[in-house]
Amino acid sequence: MGLSYSNLIRNEYVPFGRPTPVSSSTSSSDSGLTDEQIQVSVIQQYELNRKLVASGSPLDQLAVCGNPLHTNESAVVLVSENGPEGTLARIEFAWFGFNTPGRYNPNILPYPPGAAHPYFGLARQSLDNGGIRHHELVYCDMNWGLSKGIGRRILKCMTGTRNIEFPEWRSPNGTCRWLPYLEGTNGPSDPRVFFSPMGEPLMVVGTNGITNCLSQYIIDLRVMIPDLGEKMKVGHVPIRFRQLTELPRDYYDEVEKNWFVLYDEKGMGFVQHNIENRSMSALAEVDSVIGHVKNLVHGETAPNCIATLKKEYEENNDQIRNDIHQGTNTLRVTLCEFPCIPTIHNTVLIELFQIKYHSYLEIFYRRYVMVMNVTAPFEIIGRTNNLIYAGSDEKMMIFTVSMAWDHANFRRHEPWNEAKYGGRAIWDAMEDQEAEEYENSIKDFTGDALERRDKSELSDSRSSAPLDITELKNKPVTTAEEAAARYPFLYNIPIRLNSTYNNPLANEYYHGWIDDTIILNIGINDLDSGIVHVKARDLLECMTMCK
Fold first, then answer.
1. How does strand 132-146 pair with strand 153-157?
2. Cis bond upstream, residue 339 (ω within 30)
3. How far lies 167's CA from each of 129, 208, 211, 396, in Å?
4. Which of 425, 313, 460, 389 lies closest to 85, judged by CA?
5. Distances (CA, A) of 297 to 194, 268, 269, 279
6. What's the pTM value of the predicted model, to 2 decimals?
7. What's the CA gap between 262 and 270, in Å, rounded?
8. What value does the mean pLDDT take over residues 230-248?
9. What angle do CA 382, 388, 390 make, to 5 degrees?
10. Which residues does residue 402 pair with via DSSP β-bridges, in sequence order?
């Protein structure tokens, strides 16, 4: 199973990947560092990685509350980086008529550096069609400005909003038994816009079903917005979803909504349909015949750490019900500071889900981050406490729509450079040697020892002994001589081989480090839009682990 560790989250240890100064006359023209500096740094990372993976319970370290205001029982208050007040900033998609709700369900993606405006924005608008709402999608280029009168910082359209031409059709007769009016053309609802690891600007969106009432679809936004590929500098990336493509499931409920896409360590896509009774299919099966889709996960009950968030209410309570709702898209996070090398042991997927409370008078959401392994079938590792955005209040119906890395505007380090930081040829060689050593060592184990090992938490651990934090903090620096003695074969590997290999976990679109900044796009009361910027570290405060 892919592991995550977080003793580096609080910056208590020397971050991975920062080369230890050693004397060397050998220079690497590719990176500006000496070959020996890079080799020793990678060896140090590998040794620490191995100790963390061997820990009996390395994930427990995620439960640390770094902010003294937060406890394991309290909500986590998120203070935004995008303005001096630290509060949720409003998004202004422009006024578009009397007696209409505002533009909501916002999706903001950053343009690359050098663009005319820093952000691309897309939102949903709803028009009254004889008492029935008809939905549309609008988009514009955005930048920061000030609200009129008060002068608070807001994100606003700098170009006129434009409508997306969206194909429409009716649902099959009799498929909308719950709400028959939904059989009519509804238009697009609940858009989720995100980058794939390749840089595709994709949208998952709901509309009328083909075999059911309402279904979920995926499309590449470059098809709908012709100049988007050029502005995002991803025109070279192939377009796979050229038309509205129904996402796969072995069966469809009457109404499907809020599905999200996950990508494993190799970039393979999967779609998760539900959290409570977890269901997941491979994105590669979009062309499969319904009923023949092979689910990666089917009907798996959510772990207690999530299931227990749902409460039972007495019949005379004014609370009707509460449900677990999937919310945002996913992102890949490496749980240590740049430039530590991303691996399946220190990298996870995150998604923000919500508990929806229905009462007679209002709808209310509480939101949590769900943390999953980066490898399929994406085992749920843990969740955060309830997240509260500074500047919001309890009267707001706040739904977190989507999220994205804002590397272009908030990143404080250079992009990942495989030749400079990756040490990939060295890393692979060390893992090959470790595997060989392990195969040889098990010959000395007794059957009883092997049985105990198999019952340990980590199937590929070198040891099941608990992690010694003191040992890690006081771990002596590996010298060049010690490195050469431990791994003599390394010094026969040309360091420039690294430039031909790219770490499959690292990219500029779907992946970031714990010290990178995430955009959270927020719908308010189905009328308005907001945005906050927070460090990934702040999102992962006070984790509750799913044992």
1. antiparallel
2. yes
3. 18, 10, 16, 33
4. 389
5. 23, 15, 14, 5
6. 0.77
7. 5
8. 94
9. 140
10. 521
Nearest Cα residue to 426 out of 46, 30, 54: 46
Residue 97 Rama label (left phi>0; alpha psi -120 to 50; beta): left
Q: What is the tens place of the pLDDT at every residue in 323-353?
A: 899 999 999 999 888 888 888 888 999 999 9
Q: What residues does CATH 2.115.10 cover in the chain?
A: 76-415+512-545
String of DSSP letters for 394-427: TTS-EEEEEEEE-HHHH--SPPP-IIIII-HHHH
Look over the chain and give the mean of its residue pLDDT values, rounded to a whole number: 77
Question: Of the candidates 507, 336, 326, which has an alpha carbon nearest to the alpha carbon of residue 405?
Answer: 507
For 325, phi then psi, to 5°, come to -115, 130
The amino acid sitting at 340 is C
444 burial via Cβ count (<10 Å: 0-12, 13-18, 19+): exposed
Class of domain 76-415+512-545: mainly beta
The conformational region for residue 94 under phi > 0 = left, psi -120 to 50 = alpha, else beta, is left
Residue 284: other Cβ atoms inside 10 A: 11
What amino acid is encoded at 502 in this protein?
N
Query: Checking phi first, is residue 296 left (phi over 0); if not, alpha (psi -120 to 50) or beta?
Result: alpha
- Name residue 230's amino acid: E
Distance CA 170, CA 105 (A): 23
**CA-to-CA dists, residue 239 to 108, 197, 289, 454, 547, angstroms:** 21, 13, 22, 44, 40
Q: Report strand pairing: 89-92 vs 153-157.
A: parallel
How far apart, in whole angstroms, are the C-alpha atoms of residue 62 and residue 49? 16
Buried-exposed string 84-94: b where 16+ CB fall within 10 A, e elsewhere: eebbbbbbbbe
Query: Kind of pairing, strands 330-334 and 511-513?
Result: parallel
SS3 sequence, 21-79? CCCCCCECCCCCCEHHHHHHHHHHHHHHHHHHHHCCCHHHHHHCCCCCCCCCCCCEEEC
DSSP H helices, 131-233, are 221-224, 228-232
pLDDT in tens, 27-61: 443 445 566 665 565 565 555 555 544 444 445 55
Count, in order, helices (H) and strands (E) of the chain.
Answer: 10, 26
CA–CA separation, 483 and 50 (whole Å) = 16
Cα 348 from chain centroid (whole Å) = 8
**pLDDT value of residue 471:** 42
